Input
Amino acid sequence: MPPKTPRTKVYFPPESTQKVKDGIDILAQAVSSTLGARSRAVGLSNGEFGKITKDGVSVAKSIHLEDLVQDYGVQVVVEAARKTNDRVGDGTTGTIILAHALITEAQKSINSGISPMAIRPLLEERVNKLIKELDQYVMPVKTLSQKIAVATISANGDEALGKLIAETLDKIGDQGVMTAEDTKDPETRVEFQEGVQFDKGMVNEGFFTDFERRTASLEDAPVLITDKPLKEINDVRGWLEKVVVPKSLQLVIISPEISGNALPSLLQTKLNGNFMSLPINAPYVGATQKEFLLDLCALTGAKFVSQEAGTEFKDLKYEDLGQIKRITSTKTATIITGSEPTEAVSARIAGIKTQLEDPDITDFEKEKLKERYGKLTQGIAVLKLGAITEIELKERRERVIDAISATQSAIKHGVVIGGEVVYLKLREYLNEQKFTNTLNSQIDTILLEALKAPFYILMRNSGLEPGEFMPYIKGNDGVDVTDGKVKDFIKAGIVDPVEVLRESLLNATSVANQILSLGSVIVPAPEEKHAS
Output
């Protein structure tokens, strides 16, 4: 018999619209409580284990509502917030607050008779202008004190962690790499290890080992490095079973292409728990890719499996594989740490230096050589996180990972005054625009209300009444929620990475437009309950 077709239930407006909005209301209420230095923590439980966090992304990903239409609204907005977090390591809470406010205010216009499809293009156009307007408020981050301020705010006001992160990033330079690992010691410290980072990640998110953090990590793993595409599982099946599996139940594969039936076969083996492979896309293209793969071979001790040399997978011995002490990969980046310094690495570095002295190389070639040189010489700063309890460790890990990413973003792209004040600056810009057209005025009304939401929530989370302080928000002044005083935020060091605000505003608008254009929503039908 053919498999039974799953039954679905279709919800139409206004019921579908209201249910989706109800779900987003619940999400926003839970996540917005984590905004600011005086915010409340949220308790999370999976039915067996619990933790306490002020990390917006952890709260958002933990919400799965029983009503499937409400849950649909939650998951669509969470995905937009996740996109912000993936790109800049922070901004989940801000994205959700802005998206919720935009949807709430736009819905009022829709209820008054304005078409959501008329709102959509104008809202996108106006927000793009606001994002460009942000540029005039950007300040570069150059001093250590500025870096400490950003890291401390991103670590939810933890001055000790903020100082440690900022000092480490200042030491390793703008192009340096920093990551975080747990340790059983109660103290938190920094270790400098040999390693390398590159801007390519795992082939498929099904290889995650930590779905909450959207990462895959392996320790003491063999690695196959090749410039050959891997498309047919039969090309490696016998070799894996006879050569690799008897000595290791895990393998990292770095290749320009892993596709065909090889990818689903490797994924299924991982899901079955039989063998953990981690296929990673090789970075760069052409000659630069080959040279970087050779750099990785020097770092890990692997034999380069080359198309040009005609090397076959089936002919490889286990000794031809390299060894990685620790590897962490996301969908977009990979970090290899813990490798020991070797003569092979020193030789690769010396070779790059010699090539850089060649007066005939092109600017493009010089740029790629400098990138490779930096990756091989800078190493990795590893923040070893300690804590008294497991719950404390989890909470600290989330704050630290966000703070590292946010601080690196600030160093690269600059900062703006913090405390959600820049959104109020954008409101001032909108107020200066004079529109006689009713629809344009309506769009500005939506944005004017939505842009004040982050500031209002920040203030109320701190026990302060926002309306009382609004007249004092001028120039660089804002409200320091730790003591309730109006201060010059530049002098006080209260700043935010501009990229976090850009991404939050951009992704919040995108998802708001998606939600506003919804008609019907289709979800699985509830299972019928039969009388026993």
Residues 196-385 form a domain with the GroEL fold (CATH 3.50.7.10).
